[in-house]
Batch of 2 targets.
Target 1
Amino acid sequence: MAEVVLKDIRKEFGTFVALERLNVAINAGEFVALLGPSGCGKSTTLRMLAGLDFPTAGEISIDGRVVNDVAPGKRDIAMVFQSYALYPHMTVAQNIAYPLKKRGVARPERDAAVAKTATLLQLEPLLNRKPRQLSGGQQQRVALGRALVREPKVFLLDEPLSNLDAKLRSYMRAELIELHRRIGKTMVYVTHDQLEAMTMADRIAVMHDGRLQQFDEPEIIYNQPANRFVAGFIGTPSMNQLEGAIAGSSFVINGEQVPINRALYEQALKDGPVVLGIRPENVSLSGGSLPATVRLVENAGHEQIVTVEIPGGHRLLAREASGQRPSVGQTCQIGFDADFIHLFQPGENGSRFETTGQAHVIPMQAQRSASDES
Amino acid sequence: MATAAHAGHRLERRYARLGVFLIAPTIVVFSLVIVYPLLAAIYLSFFSVYTPTLEGEFTGADNYIRLLTNAAFWNSLITTLIWTVGTLSLQIVFGVGMALLLHQNLWFRSLARSLVLFPYFVSTVVAVLVWRWLFNDLYGAINHGLMQLGIMDMPLDWLGTMPNAMIGVILVGAWKYFPFVVIAVLARLQTIPEHLYEAAKIDGAGPIARFFDVTLPQLRSVLVVIILLRAIWDFKEFDLIYLLTGGGPVTSTQTLSLLVYQEAFALNEMGQAAAYSIGMMLVMLVFMLVYIRRTAREA
Amino acid sequence: MRILRKLGFNLFTWILVLLVAFPLVWMILTSLKPQTELFRIPPTWLPETVTFEHYWRLLTETPFLIYFRNSVVLATTTTVFVVVLGAIGAYSLVRFAYRGRETLATLVLFTYLLPSVVLIIPLYLMMVELGLSNTLASLVLAHTTFALPYALWLLRSFMEGVPEDLESAALVDGASRMGAFRDVILPQLLPGIISTALFTFILSWNEYLYALVLVNSDAVRPLTTGVMTMLISAFNIEWSLLMAASVMMSLPLIVVFAFLQSYLTRGFGAGAVKG
Amino acid sequence: MTLNRFMSTGVRRRSVLGGMAAVGAAAAMPRRIRAQETITLRWWSPQSSPEQLAAYETQMRNFEAQHENVQVVFERTSDEGYAPQLAAAFASGDVPNIVTHLPSFAVSDYWSAGLLEPFNDVIDMVGPENYYEGANQIYEIDPGVYAGTGIGNSAANMLWLRTDLMEQAGIDEAPRTWDQLRDAVSRMQGGGIFGAPLPYGRNSMTSLIFIGVIHQAGGQVFSPDLQVAIDSDETRNALEFYRSMREYCPPGATNYSWGESLTAFVSGATATGIYTGRVLINVANQNPGIADYIDCVLYPTVSEDVPAWTFNDFPSVFIPRQASNMDVTKQFAAFLFDPEGYIQQLHAAPGHVLPVLWTISENPEYLDNPIIERYTPQVDLMAAAAAEGYNLGWESQGHQPNVKAGEIINSNVISEMVQRVVLNDENVDQVLSDTSSRLEEIMGS
């Protein structure tokens, strides 16, 4: 068990700045996801943790020891690669035994450790096969086995599930959560899939353009996104964002007024341009004040996603329980659940106005079941 | 930008040092056997040097002035271009054609492939000997074969007169080197996805249209590289021409490589030879850069 | 109808193939004819009498076997030398970051342009300085001038084909860089190494010009110049012996080629295609 | 500053060329290691037929038997290959001890560049009185000093004839003039047999043979004081003759050199031949069926007024100045003329290399050879012709030695001239003026 600290990390590739002032402190035993779109710097971060890339500036420490100058093999970490990186010319058993061999573990102990790991991951029948004779899921398990066998302080996982099909992925997700619970080691998990991050991680570090956007528990990331990027990146379908302005206690867009819970923002909010964010599930198709026209209805069985257009050409998504099906072209008066309205600074990456209360936090359980279906 | 003040560089520097250490033997060997001789050649090109003693006088740019004003270099350059273009186009056309045939479902395909690829692997000496024997005026199989087939009634002098000598050299060069094209194209053909052909078939393309619309574009990247490589090799080919015709008749097949050899070892004019070879390299360099730029732009 | 078309296609292709192979067939046929039949006009298409006397003479009366041994030693040493240098050099060029790496790679390409005739005299002087004149070692070094750039270029594209993750995994698993090279990269590079080795071997086995100038004693002369000097002279051209020698010079290549043909094709696939 | 001064010391030169590379390391390396007790002599020659090799072997072993600690190794070179090989050897200082059978003009070329050891000592050891009169004149480039000596004589442009074919064609006398020769070959040509195997290739043979033809026309390439004299009516005449012979030569004659030309006559493909006495042993070995029907005469000239001109390339012996163990080397050079080995060497191809020592010609052991016995008149004729032979390095008694002859031959200027006129049908005046200026350029360089 070890904590992992990234302090003031900066990384340049030539003139391109890949990471800037990255500060992340991961607690011992924690499962942290590094989440972001491709090119955000999350994989670079992980590779620097592993010692495969080198920070231009800053300090990396594992278990209290600064490891900047420590070779990967001496950092006491294990890593699972997106491609699995199984050694094609070695059998499964040799693959799993390789880290031990490199550490000079004697043959009998090595065999015992391999056997134990194989049992844990149900790999016994495959031990003498070569990687190319295995299915994707089996290869994934071997890669995990190779990481597990040595019992390192920290596990690094680089999009380990992205090459699996949907069904296997959801199965392996559960397996990984279970595994982490059982061994209790620090895990750093890189993914671009917000669902994986939300379901598995204790905390999520959302990254974008080489900067850390938010680092917090999934609920908080979901319910209190730090800025427009996080708001838009987390949740499917993503949060509706409307550019408008504050006038008095209302949000005004195209001359239409949307009431907001002004009290929650009272310290920060002034009249002027602002972006309103509202998740689709907090949009109701009737009983509101904003006139809208239904443009598209996507039925997903137990719910439906309705695209509506409000004056000025903005489109919004609403999530409705199945039942009455709105017809395309129909007009309606949509409304937002005032407790769940977020307000952001204008600008591409505007940060969220802090609320003074926690009124709109919803239980995580509901969120999970909702997003799982997407 | 990487200053020592930054933390986290020792490992990176260690790796960089290891990298340099690993390339070092190659650099040493390169410097020893390529860079140094090259510099020596450039140095010699400013002298009038008697080959056996390597003694001579500094003559400045005289050798280069003679290169520019004397017809020998330019005639050889033209000969070299004729040879290169001639043999290269035959290699490409025949190589691509043969690769297409061998890509099909042929009886005893791997035997056919081995036979076709073999000329590339026999020594130039062997190739030249065999062809000189085939071309032999009195006992050669080619003359007699053609005579028995009634195509001609007198033996032809294949390597001694123009344009036969150039044709002969180009033919032998094409025979010797077209398998290189076959191998490379064959390797590429095997990676063209079948569905491209199926799509073209559905669109009603015949075999010829399929070749031009599907195969050729897919081969483009390979052909760009092969043409560059083969052009360089053909341009500086020495063994084959030297052993086959020695540059004759007169100087009709005396390419630049042979000119350099003749100047250096027959006339003992090492300085002039060095100047010719530098000129030859510059010509190649210009051609190569133009070629790379053009193909890069088209791509 | 389809059968006919297939038959036609096969016939056509095979005729072409046999035309290409004819010089080699003729070489073998000539080497089996007795001297008297050789100068028959018109030539006999198949030998009337088959004789192995030329082979016998080559092996017993001439230094052919010495040349052969020299060629084997020369080509093998060159191959090992070049492939070892090339493999670690390619590893460095592909997997390490240091200043000047790109420039180096470009310079390697530039060395293709150098004609052998330019390098030969300075090389010879150097060999004498190194005390290597008239030795096989001098030819090994000379052959690296063309073999090393080619091998480096081939191995570089092979190296680029080895997933970087494999090396990373080995590093994380506790290997050093060289350990990872040995345990993981080399086994993956093996087909590439074999194919590069074959090409190098062929280049070295067939080289003529350096062998002509750099060595001058039968004890170290390789086959190419040995056979030419021995059999083509002012007093005779021994066609039958030449053809027999040609056949025997090509034999090792035939053997190598038959066993490792797929590697060769793969070599071109990787090297030529990726450039 | 001259490169000469820069490089003249050898060491300095190498440091110039070597300084660019890591020669610090090279200098520290041991030089070629020669075992103290054993001296190795290296012997180069382009003449290496199996019979000759056997003779050399005898000579080397005999010498080694007499000299403890000495080992002689033979290294073969070739007529086309010796130039680059020797150039590289001289340039590096890593030279053979002794080189035999190169044409005399190669000797004068290297001598004039200061690369050779004076040969007087060796000639004294052999005994000047044993040589034919004037045999070493050609090597006396600087007065009183010999650059080398002959290891033999050759009569390289003998006209070889097939008496059986002459008889069939109704020719009773060997041709003396070009007209007679043309008439004879035109009558003998036919039935798959060509008239003559004259070389038209871009090689040294064509140059060497054609220089003979110029003289057979009464002309010369250089005047006695070495002014270019090739642009003459005689040369035009010679070119005209050579062109007229083309139709009697095999199509491939455009690439003929010594080997092809010899084989054409020996195999019976041509009715006449042009070569040395090597024809005799090759016929005996390869085509004994015609052994009774061969004869040789001096090559015809334009008319009976013009004397025959025999091309003798004067197979030579010389010692590079940089050679190691000079004393033993010279002893070995002299030992090459020791009757036992020398005779065996000459017998390797009787009539091909003819003795330069009259003591050998009269030696019964030399005469005791089946081929020499069988073809005594021919061998005598060749010996006499060779003794009066010349080559481009020494075109006549009156000529100064031409040290550029080797370069002229190697440059192919003459053979290119032949090809341009005969094969390309170019304007003779233009060709001759081009050739003259190229010759002048070489002479001036």
Target 2
Amino acid sequence: MKITDVICPFCGCLCDDLTVTIENNRVTGVDNGCALAEAKFMHTGRLNNPIIKDGDRFRETGYDDAIGAAADILKDSERPLLFGWSGTQGEAQCSGVHLCELLGGVIDNTSSICHGPSILAIQEVGHPGCTLGQVKNRADLIIYWGCNPVEGHPRHMSRYTNYADGFFLENAFRERKLIVADVRKTESANLADEFIQIKPGGDYAVFSALRAIIRGKGDILPDYVAGVAKSQLERVAKMCLEAKFGAIFFGLGLTMTKNKYKNIRNAIELTDLLCRHTKFTITPMRGHWNVYGSNEVMTWLTGYPYGVDFSRGIAFYNPGETTAIDILAKKECDAMFVVASDPAAHMPKKCAEHMAEIPVIQIDPHINCTTLLSDVQLPVAVTGIETPGTAYRMDGIPLRTKKVIETVYPNDTEIIDKIYKKVLEVQKK
Amino acid sequence: MIFHMITGRTVKQGEGVEKKLSADYKKETSACRMNPLDMMDLGLNEGNHIKIISDYGEVVMTAVEDKTLTAGMIFIAYGPYCNVITSHDTHGTGMPDYKSTPVRIEETDEDLKTVEELFRGMGGTSL
Amino acid sequence: MKTVRLKRKDIKNPYLPVEAEKITTETFLNNDISEIRIWSGNQEKILEDLFTVDTEGEADTAEDVHIILSGDCSKVKRVGEYMTAGRITVEGDIGMHCGNFMSGGLIEIKGNADSWLGREMRGGEIICRGNAALYCGSGYRGEKKGMRGGLIHIEGDAGDFLGETLWGGKIIVDGNAGNMPGAEMQGGEIIIGKDAEIPGANMKDGVCIICGTAFDILPTFMLEDGKKNIDDFKTGFFEFSGDHANRKPKGRIYAKDYRIHQ
Amino acid sequence: MSELLVKNAFVIDPLNNINGEIMDIAVKDGKIVESVKDTSNTIDAKGNLTLPGGVDSHTHICGTKVNFGRYMSPEDMRAGRGRAQKYMYPVSGYSVPTVYANTYRYSSLGYTTVLEGAMAPLEARHTHEEFSYNTLQDTMANTLFDGNWAVMEAVAENDLKKVAAIVGWTLAAVKGFAVKITNPGGTEMWGWGKDVGCMHTKVDHFGVTAAEITDYLIRANELLNLPHSAHLHNNNLGKPGNYKCTLERMQRTPDLNDKRQTLYMTHVQFHSYGGSKWADFCSKADDVAWMINRKPQIAIDMGQVMFGKTTTMTADGPMEFNLYRLYNNKWSNHDVELETGSGIIPVLYSKKNLVNSIMWSIGLELALMTKNPWQCMLATDNPNGAPFVKYPEVIALLMSSKYRDEEFSTLQKDTEKRVILPSLDREMDWNEIAIMTRAAQAKALGIVDLGKGHLGVGADADIAIYPVKTGDIDPTQEYEKVIEGLSVTTHTIKRGRTVSKDGNCLVFGDNATIWVKPKISENYDISKDPEFIKRFERYYTVNMANYPVEEEYINRNICIETETEL
């Protein structure tokens, strides 16, 4: 059986044109998808049953037992951290926020370690953006800054930018110019008309320099800015000003490097400035398929996109204080609830060490690094393959991911709702 | 010599995110890619084991040549290996220095740890 | 004059943050301290659960109250929030957000201060004998105006984003400042005794003085002709105008020495 | 199911011509009935003012741009934080608060039905997801067609029925309620950083004008026999001299419907500006009101501005960019492919500012000079003019010239040279306020037949009881009591249940989404049109199969199926 128009639950591109072949309730083929999509749909490495840590080993158990154990840990916690959320359905994210309010915990999603700094920048200066189709149909200049779509978002260029058809471009591939800015010559950079190679940590200065050039203050600049020749910057500024529609995409090369969110603020201010001359937009290359959904859900429920502290029953937000890395590294939480992400694999060692010290509950279909630090893990259905649910694309478009095969596993929402009920029950006692 | 460590996504690392205890994932995330000239300076050949040391820890990886990197820069795919040496300092922004931790590199005879061994060292449980 | 001595009790989890915005001078005008609530993690407590309290003397106005904090207060946040008058002395370290929105009075910290010291401060004075961590004298997320008045004096070093979005008032750091002091500043004055990195990024107005070396000065700052004397002691400083990434900026950086970002 | 009796209610129910009578209201199974047998469940209204539940016919509470307003504004969020209560979740925010905050605050103001003013079809799921948390009001969504490529192409082909076919399919697919046109043509031009002005500039490439787009959508709306009329945010919003554009739009609107208006023009305050630049900016509310008074086919809402901080948000991308250039504060923009755009900036309306003071005056002038209150709804274009929590103050201003004069004396002093407000002595009565806040809105939206906006037998038992005894206070003098009395109901009853009492919500709530599904014959089913499909698949970045909003998103819902001429 072939199922068409399937949405890929891997990266923020949320490609919705996959065709998945199913035989005997197993995915046997994925058409149109990239290598990452194929790996996702043909996944292995599942955890079969709930497990509970017992001494220095795990033992298998039933769902009721594991839910009870999870509720016991959470009810005793004076500062639980609920982390993850980017790899699950919007419905589960909503349940997670409500659970956090009930517990008086801190809820944070993986954006604090991907585009959280972009959000901080947006909160300072706003965000001139658009949906990806706007870029595909109009843009004659594409800029990838600090990101490598060939590796990170393999179909981004073919669906939305350089290799996509465009309504207003006769020959989109030829008419579109591509600029790539990075600290190293990535595969994406090899495709560029103009490659800006910046010394690590120099992005901020380069944005400032471009703004000065566009304001007619180029004369004050030195010959080189962060390793980039002034003549190249002038050329790039000219390309931007001559574009009818320019679209900047940026990645973790800006958020994770020195100056963090200030890099993005500067990039946005450059975009704002260019909008006074022509049309420009800027879009973060969101990583996890539904990380933007976790920001949306948390925003409409709590008012803030990530890093929300409900310790006192009201929402308090201050990334750097209420975000997962800071809390773990400073040992400020006494229990952790992980849903649909693998912090142990992606956080600095000091954070993992604290996870080993405190009780950790994980809701995830797979055995992963966090499993090794968990006290309880409940396996669930894979959202977007075994259970449907809402997801938000990197440009904010909401889509409903599909269920393509049957499963015996409950989904994230069901498990979290059960834990919620159980916590209510034990709190009353 | 101080190297500037950048960590990031790769296709192979992405393919492995749901099988993190596999040999493929280990291979991809424990590869330290570096400029060939830097390798020459350190007397390293492709596949040599190296110890990478930062203010935050040390870890054994495999040296892999990568001409896209300029001298003084190393690239490691996201994963449990680079985490051992990554700075957890977020500078008040929530984001650690995933792309800006300074490290030192030495050749070593030590073996690479498996992912499970790495976590056992931090207090994790074996499966 | 009323003196209130608060000593942090030993508790089982020393890492758990405590929120204690009630520890401010006005609170102790009332002699009944049994109703003073503070939070330890998600648990609402009364002050005496976490502190031993020892009061002497009487006061009719906040001006006459002196709070002395001792014991490990490095996780005690929001002390002196909205303080208008009087005095707080911290014998050791203090947690985040000390002196938020403070408009008058004096806070003296004998140890180190954690991040967001004097956030959105309006007036009064904070002296920190040790180091101050990140975002000292800064604003809040998304808010255009940061500290608007008053004085913060750090005798040690300050961390990154010192005086971010500074709008008014004065910050003095005797030691080094971290990355990006005075980012987005639109007024006020920052004086750094030693070195700093990327000062005044995107500033529109205000003054940032660096008595040591200003590292990685942004290329969008323009070196003005001739050297300047700030006062009798700070002489022969380089003067930069900027940040010229902005339209008609009025900001000034003075530095004893500098390195251009290259 | 349950029965309820509201006793001793001082009822004003304009749609049923009840203007202040003490009555009992009987409720059974969520509807108003003649009488009930079981009187165990009784609310004593004690002679207090009792109105049909409030209806807001133009507000921004749910969806992509509203949420982006929240996302970018932690400084606004911290202004309105509250903790959980038994039936209330924690809330945050003032001008763009969280969904729960909106629904709780609307409920304590006595509102039971709200219309989200702008939903991009491509992002409709988002609006519906948020609707499901807006539990205490029934919800519906204006659906944006201002820059819809297929519509513009059909207009260029002079094919009215095709326009209707596209609109009909889209509304049903995205579970929308009405046709919204925001700066027609302008949002498409904004894709190139341009605007259309008013209203005869041709849109690049598509070759149609704003006037034509609106003309066609007005007629298509009637062909589809939709409950609400076309709902227009006109071109040139916020520009000095734009009143001419407003007048021309009114002038060229035909009268096509005898049950309601043919065109709903929203936040007309922002469209009644004289002058040619900010320096000679002035009110032209008298000209605009004069036209409204001659045109029964037009209904408007005020778009009142109130002083203080708020956040502006609209699908009108180019307008928000112009505002950004004035304020130089943060600015967000979000263009939606093939459909529309949007923009957001925070603003501060200040009494010290001459332009702001004139804007404040214009909104009130419009309401006071529109003779027929059924043609003028009370709204602030929440949160653009002000957050809706200011409605009681707006009402008090309309009821008291004393209050207006007192406020006026605190404005920038040149204001009096640019407006006529001080010369207006009309003071509205309770009945007129009831019309402007529920009855006229329900009528304009075409939902009276669904049982909204009135308290007749068969109506939904959506009832608001305010702690106001109209006989005991003189609203022309005691405006503070008006504000206080209308700010928090003693009871807000939704579908027969008390959902909010003295500002506390008593239930989690269970709203319904009202949407339309025009019945269109096979021949006009645009989703089967090969050319439409081809262009869709080629230029959208979402496959057509993934575009329609699934039933899962509208659990409780009321579908209005309409008989059409297609």
